[in-house]
Amino acid sequence: MSIKDRSVLTNSGIALESMYRSAFLPLQQDCYRNNYNWQAKVVSPPLPASSRDLYALENANSNLENGIVETTPKFTFRAYILNQGSPQKCQSPHAFFEDPCTINDAEDPACARQMIERCILITSPEGYGGGIPQVGDTVNIILRQADQHGAYDLQFGSLASLADSSIRNAVNFATFTQCQTLGEMFGTGDLSALGGTTLGANQATHYIEAERTADDITLIVLHHTSGSSGAGKAQGTIGRFADPAGPTNAFTWIDPATGQQIQNPTCAQVMAAGAGLPLDTICHPERRQVERIVRTSIHYAADQGGNIVQGVLDKDIAHHAGPTWNRRSIGIEMNGDADIGPGEGVGGKYSAMYNEPLIHAVSQLVARLTFQHDIPIDREHIKGHYEVNREVRTGPGNNAGATLPGQGHPDKIVPPGAYWDWDDFIARVRRLRAQMGV
User: Fold this and answer.
1) pLDDT tens digits, residue range 360-417?
2) pTM (2 decimals)?
3) CATH topology of domain 208-244+296-435
4) Separation in Å, CA 207 to CA 29, 298, 398
5) Does a cis peptide bond (omega within 30 degrees of 0) precede residue 87?
6) Distance CA 155, CA 245 (A)
7) pLDDT single digits (tens) 83-122
8) Where in the chain is the domain with CATH 3.40.80.10?
């Protein structure tokens, strides 16, 4: 997001004073610590949290106007946090950001849209029954606590209520219309309008927006989820990465009062203990339990039904193989546990999770990616996760087996076996690439 360039102030003393007043004075007043309630301006239209809610969302406001009180489907939108209090009590955490709806160069849609995309993502809570905010409205939001010291998370927040919708009829209606037009590009699936920076409901939460070209992408990394397999699982995997709260893992908390270990305690339990949320954990907005944050993502997921679902655009960087590898690779996640049933998969050459629809779909995807990004089809440029991350001891491509450390149970022994056949896979990719006529 663009930051206001205070260097335009010709007098350095005035510039420093401006910076001091807008940042350090509010901090000295301690108006941020443990202060999670703010007002914000809506800068993108609400979008359903899932496509099945689309029709209900479009009709929710009309139901309210007709006196029909129903639970509104979950929705998300972007918001620009406003200064707090009148007279100003606490300056907005967005104080150094230009308001995307009023920037001077707003006629540049790519710039404005990029700024909107970097504003805080607000999600309606379960059971929300209020009006659905529109672009230009003021809303009351609740920020998520980020650590035990009273700081908050500026990536995600929860909608509390609609505060003021009068701006829709105000004199700056033209600005409202402009932001509305820009915001409508979010989550529509039309990625061509401005170059494409989002995959809508499938867009991963944690990724790095980039403009990678074929020169930048030189590697494809294959993963397995170590979880359940089956047709349709790919969508679930992408949905987990796209959760507004981000993907999470189980968190074990020790109650300071009793010494008892509790897995995924309720948010109320932890907050009642008085120390706040432990570092790198969140209070999950839906499950209302404390879980450990996992800042990972994947470009594609595949399942045993031959389904491929994309979660991060090829041009962007997903967090799947470590920083060094991420910058130059595309990651593919295959649903299932590769350590189970060696030799029980397709042709007796793979483990049980790798059936024909999955192997064919992934081979076809890799063939297309190698063509699009000019990647050689060989073992130097197509690898298993275990080859780029030494902490990963099994997975696609590793037939040597391993001893995996147990967590509260005996170590897991993975004996050597036919878990994956690189020769067969590479041959499939080359054959499919040839069928493309390239």
Assistant:
1) 999 999 999 999 899 999 999 999 998 998 777 778 988 777 776 655 555 677 777 7
2) 0.57
3) Lysozyme-like (3.40.80)
4) 35, 9, 27
5) yes
6) 9
7) 775 445 667 777 666 666 665 444 556 666 667 777 888 8
8) 208-244+296-435
